[in-house]
Amino acid sequence: MTGSISSPGGDSSADADLFPTEALAYDVFARACPSRGVLEHVTGRWGGLTIGALAEGSLRFNELRRRVDGVSEKMLSQTLQALERDGLVHREAQPTNPPRVDYDLTPLGRAVAGRLLALITCVEGAMEQVLDARARYDAERGAR
Amino acid sequence: MTGSISSPGGDSSADADLFPTEALAYDVFARACPSRGVLEHVTGRWGGLTIGALAEGSLRFNELRRRVDGVSEKMLSQTLQALERDGLVHREAQPTNPPRVDYDLTPLGRAVAGRLLALITCVEGAMEQVLDARARYDAERGAR
DNA sequence: CAGCATCCAGCTTGATACTG
DNA sequence: CAGTATCAAGCTGGATGCTG
Question: Which of A64, A83, B59, B123 would be A89's cystine partner, CB 3.0–4.6 Å?
Fold first, then answer.
């Protein structure tokens, strides 16, 4: 066990030691775990929005650029490459002129997108409560 | 509708226009939407891990610091303040000496945590596929 | 213990210009 | 259209020192 999170004292499987790095592993809470990197690609500034946009269907580079409000072409390009490398996004390039490249989610990407969208929807739905909470917080802080 | 994402042509409810900024609104894909900020707090470098840690139960400042591997006290403090302001985290300070402060999730925070944990679990579970995808990607790219 | 204030290195980002 | 290359600037975040 890498340390950090995952049950404090009660370890669910005492035989975990028998599988050094094989079976489970992958603990996002551990600094060095590769899953932390993937999670950052997925939840990063542009990753989440890109996946969210692609969840609605295949899109071309500049379509994506317009959809994800505020992303620069450099960042979009970078984001797409990271997601493609992680196997979440599929890139389909046609060697025509002018070139045409379509991006869409892989099955794995769709699985992640589902969870991500659930989170996004949850946050969007909570906005009124959040705004209220902020107002209260600021009122108490601002007064003092 | 702010623009950017949200169904391309097919709008599910034609009467959406009757509720200018009341009902739905909050579109993360729009640059200026406050929900984007909240989502960034939740999914940010430390926000997600902090929420994940608190999902297991109430924790004190330094306990959290140890749990979330790699976070500095400055970042943790900052993160907690943002989450508290957003109404996701509750801060309970006891005016004792030495001081004792407990943090835990609000009901809203727990709702978000659920979705977040689902995402994290999904990503962790996909790690093998991701690592495979990366290997393939690098092989093709490195060769050329 | 639970933080805040300050300083500063460096990574991330956005403009801009260029290529196939 | 679909990117890559380069560069300056700004924000992020870590280290340090101090407070109650």
Answer: A83
Let me know whether A72 and A17 are in one domain.
no
Q: Is the pTM of this model over 0.90?
A: no
Q: Examine the domain organization and report whether B44 and B14 are in the same domain.
A: no
Residue A123: strand, helix, or coil: helix
Nearest CA in chain A to B120: A39
- Cα torsion angle, A125, B114, B79, B60, sign: positive
- Quick: pLDDT tens for A78-129: 999 999 999 999 999 999 989 999 999 999 999 999 999 999 999 999 999 9
Beta carbons of A52 and A117 less than 8 angstroms apart: yes
Note whether residue A5 is domain-resident.
Answer: yes
Q: Domain limits at B8?
A: 1-33
Report residue B45: phi and psi, to 5°. -45, -45
Protein CA at A38 to nucleotide C1' at C16, angstroms: 31
